[in-house]
Structure formats: C-alpha cells, structure tokens
Design goal:
Elements lengths: L1 E5 L18 H8 L2 E7 L5 H10 L3 H4 L15 H6 L4 E6 L12 E3 L18 H12 L5 E6 L28 H30 L8 E5 L14 H4 E7 L8 E3 L3 E2 L3 H8 L14 H4 L9 E6 L12 E6 L3 E6 L9 H4 L7 H7 L4 H11 L4 E5 L17 H18 L3 H6 L4 E2 L3 E3 L5 E3 L12 E20 L3 E6 L2 E6 L4 E3 L7 E9 L3 E6 L2 E7 L11 E3 L16 E11 L7
Parallel strand pairs: 1-5, 1-6, 2-8, 2-9, 3-4, 3-5
Antiparallel strand pairs: 2-7, 6-7, 10-11, 11-12, 12-13, 14-15, 15-25, 16-24, 17-18, 17-21, 17-25, 18-19, 19-20, 21-22, 22-23
Amino acid sequence: MVIFIADDLNQQDVGCYGNTDVKTPNMDQLAAEGMRFNRAYAASPICTPSRSAMFTGLYPFRNGSQMNHFTVRPNTANLPRFLQQLGYRVVISGKTDIFPLHNFPFERIGEEFGRYLPIENRLDRKKETIQMIGDHFKSHPEQPICLIVAPWVPHVPWFPNRDFDPGNLKLPHYLADTKATRKALAAYYQSIGEADKMLGEVLQAIDKAGQKSSTAVMFLSDQGAQFPSAKWSVYDQGLRVPLIVRWPGKVTPGSVSDALVSLVDLTPTLIDLGGGAEHNELDGASFKNVLLNKKKSHHQYIFAETSMEPHFWYNYTPSRTIITGDGFHYIKNYHPGVRFITHIDKVEQNEFYFDSWIAAAQTDPRTKFLLDRYSYHPPEELFNLATDRDEFKNLVADPAYHSKLSELELLLDKELKRQGETNEMILEGPLPAFSDQSYTIRQGSSAADLSFNKKRWNPDTLIITAYLDGLNQGGVVCDYFSNFKLYAYQHKIGLVLADGTEIASKQIPVSQGQLVFSLSAKGTLELRFDQQTILKQELKGDLTKIKSGYVTCGKIQGEELKGKLQTYQGKITDLRFTMNELSGTP
C-alpha cells in the first residue's frame, strides 16, 4: 500500500477533477487506472489536525489534536501500530506533522525533504523514497509494506512560476481577480505540477520493482489550498480534497464514486485492505466495499472542524460542521463577532496577495463580498452543494430551508455529544486566559508557544502562583516549555530540569495550600508555600523564556508519565503565570 499525500491542494485544482489550466498528467493517469472520489473531505482544514485524524481514525477532539501543532492524547492507537500488528512494515517519507512523533512508530526516511525549508528540499532531491521502494522488494520481498509519501508541495512557499501566464488563467470563483492573486495562483499551480512529477517518480518506482499489480496506491491531499475561504476554513474549498485509488484487479479503471467519505476513514480502510479486523472504537469506517463496487454509498454524513491556529493573534474562531449524503453543508461558528485571521493575511511567506484584496474591496463589490466572506462568519451557515458548490448563498434565513436547518442543528448536536465535546468547551477553547501582565491555564489544559507574542511575554522574573490540593499524591503542576517541570508530590514541591536535574523542598506537613514560585532570568529561584519559604537555589541559565513547546497545567503534553511527573492527582486552582511582579494595583 502506497499513500501519496499532497499538502494543501484543492480537489478542483487537479486536471482529472476538471481544471484545464493546471498540469497533472500523473494524477490524471492514476484516475484513469483507478477510482476517483468526488466527495472526499478532510476532518479539519489544518495540517496537524487533519493528519492526526488520518493516522488515528479519530476526529480531532477524540484524538486530542484540534489546533495546529498540537499533540494527540497519550497512548492514542494509530495506523503504524495497527498495521505492524498485521505484519506490515510501515514507513513515512517526508513530512510528518503529527505529535508527539514517537507515539506514531513509523519507520522514517526522507527527513531532509520533510523539513519546511529550504524550498528546494521539498521534492526529495536525494531520491530516498524511490531508493527505498526498490530496496524493500529486494531485501524484504515477502513482507507487506505501507509507505506514506508526504512532500511539502504544494504548501507555501510556492515554487516560482515557470509554466503559466497568470493573465490567461481561469480564476476560481472564490478568488478575487487581482494581479497579485493571479501571480500567486500561477505559483500554486507550478507547485502542484512539482507534486505531480514526484507522484510520477513513485509510480515509476513501483512499476520498476514489478509491484504495480500487487500494490494499492492512494493519492490525496490533507486539506485545501492556502487561499481565503479554503485552508483554515470549513468551507467546501477548505475540506473537499482529491482522493484517487488504484488497485489493479480490484478497482475498476476509470471509475468515479460519489460516496461521501472522510479522511478519518483512511486508517480503518488501510487496516481492512491489510486483512485486519474492524475497530469499532474508531470514528472512521472502511470504504473498501466502495472500492470493490459492492457499495455505492458510504456515510450518511461526515463531521469536520476548525479550532484555528494557536497563534498570538488571539482570534479564536472555532467552527463545527456537518456535510450530509444528500448534499447539504451546515456550519456553526462559535465566535461570530471575532474577525477570522490566519497566515493568509498575517504571515504569508511569498506571493503575498492579501493587501491587493483589501485595496480592491474599496471599489469592487465582488472583491468586498469575497473578503468579507473570509473575514467575518455569521453564527450559522447552510449551503446546498448540489446548486451552490461555491457556497455563496447562505440559506439560513430562507423559510424553505428551516426544516433542513433544524434537522442539521440536531444532527451536529448529536455528533458533538457522541464525541464528548460540549458547546462550553468549544467556546472557551484551549488558549490561555490573558490579563495585562499574566495568563492562567485551566487544569488539564495546555497552550503552545505559538499562542504567545514572545516579545510581549518576555519576563525578567517569572512568577507562578496556584492553590494546590492533594500534595500527598500530586504530580506535575506545570511543564514550562520543557525548561522545567514543576511538581508537587508526596508532600514535596520541586523541579525537574531539562537535563534531568531534580531540586526538591523538604517535607511539607499539609496537603493543600498556596504556592508562589519565583524565578529570575539570572537563575534565582524561590519557592514559597503558605507564606513560608521552602526552597531557595541558584540555577544556571535563563529558564524564564518561552521556547518551542507547551506550557501545561496538571499534565505533560502528549505524555502519560508516572511518579512525580504523573498527571496531577488532586486539584490545581488558579494556576497563573505572571511577569516580573505580583501587584494588587488595578
């Protein structure tokens, strides 16, 4: 089994799906030799949540990875574990973008082209993938293999355009027609062509190894392209992805399926193809019988979500959505008063076109509509995909669709209840609660370093305060970006530093009380408990600064440890991180 995952590619931007400008001969040939799915959707329009859902068979809330770069929950079962139990060699080549990576026991190759930069590395210049395919069938001819090929194309930064005249491109309806947009679209199409060439190399390697007839090949993308109302959003352009499957002797060449499938179905389908038993605990379901033409339909509805990027723009704008077998798309937006902001209008790496939309919107009504559609989302949206694939006409206020709206509202509520996510959880989200000089994190929660403007949150002295109950059993109070782990365990409070060094107080006779932790950038540490100093020490280096990673409350992100670093076995109230001084001044 070989699964080729393109990165940030709309379904409509592949030749066999109707795009007459882009050049995708290998994708088109694969479709001619296999089955093309018209209604395949990502579980999230964001890289890490989408890939985590693909490789666990669980929707983002259920696996834990709802924001970009967030980890799955500790010990979450996943594709390599399932297939290794069936005797498979499970290899990933290139991009991973799943965390913690060691939880996913892939054999890894192609790590050089799995890095974000430089852009030239994104096409596996060392040809490790091609070499591995040949070597496997020479050295392990009897062992089945599942190979995931995951280049960073056509993800931004896009390759410089060489093959397209921007002025002659047929612009997709959801994009504003500006010179900068056309230039960006040409670069995006160039990058799609580069992905197609790499797919061709993989297919040729399979043929050269004499394994075409015995290999199922899947081509898909993780979500839509990085254009407004595509990636990051739960509109059709963000979620609908290409999915093509070639399985010689099993799948009818040139066949097309309108079955409703989700990328959360990928893991159960691969388990099924590998001869494994069904796993009823997964959210996804195998579409093997669709491939074999034993079934025409698959799901009655699928679910998707966005919880946005955990960046310090503080524009937490989550959405949850249902897409039904009869072609309706219902979206619930949980913070409609907050402007929707992403990489597209903030930190794009190249071919920056967003300012041209803002300028054009001053005089062009269509551009203003498209810009507003991206930036501001109403509380609810309902679209009929059969008549409005672009999703420009919101039917929520149309009396003719009130019954359908009520039906889908109830269906979404039922699905969220099944997953265990409440409206309150969605509204509050995983971001810290920020004040002027401090922020708080709820017990059992965490925040990524991306949630912080590091110039703003740059303390000379870091102060951590909380009320701790349960010092007798206790566990980790917080992990501060892997600089140190603060714990309260067996009536002691202490630190575990990044190098494994442990520092602990003497025995504390009570099981609850007020903690005040103070650490200067020069390394001066003082711990107070119930107004008594219990530990003073000079540490080496500055441990107050925010590094890549997470700050947590009562847990280690993505891990389940034992002893002093176990999940806190008590209650932590008001865990607050303060810069420089504790003050009661308003």
